[in-house]
Amino acid sequence: MIYAAILSACALTLVSPASAHEYKLGDLTIGHPWSRATPPGAKVGGGFLTIENKGSTPDRLVAVSASFAQKAEMHETLTEDGVSKMRPLKDGVEVKPGETVTFEPGGKHLMFIGLAAPLKQGDRAKGELTFEKAGKVDVEFAVEAAGSSPKKQMDGDMKGMDHGSMDHSGMKQGQ
């Protein structure tokens, strides 16, 4: 019995604080907010997470803010005729009851515009999510390696998209 208790305690200490983290707000669970490390001089970064609605009524993510950027927006990447395009999600993102919405590379994602400094691997960057019904929740984005993905292989990676040279409208600078 004592041996089992010691093994359980040891197993708990092996859980890394850098592993997935989550936040709860009413019926919503926000899973593992993360971002990729950015190179020096980068003015934009991306944010990724999941939002699960365990309630019986829909809610909507209506705003995002980040202490490390001038502004934060919700975007979606679409591919039309082989060309990837980003568009802002001005009306936010609905999270229906019993569903999980995923913000990931190549799909819905957060854009951090006007970075105050590069995002460095291993850091935690403070942000805030605002929901229409549930209200506001403070989160920390775990900064992971540049090019990292929440899955071993992700078919919808943002390869070929140059976020570093796009302004907030999604247009390449200088166009």
TrEMBL record:
Membrane-crossing residue ranges in chain numbering: none
Keywords recorded for this protein, A-Z: Signal
Segments of skewed composition (Basic and acidic residues): 152-175
Protein name from the UniProt record: Copper chaperone PCu(A)C
Signal peptide (residue range): 1-20
Pfam families per the UniProt record, alphabetical: PCuAC
Keyword Signal: yes
InterPro entries (alphabetical): LpqE-like (IPR007410), Lxx211020-like (IPR058248), PCuAC_sf (IPR036182)
Region annotation (Disordered) ranges: 145-175
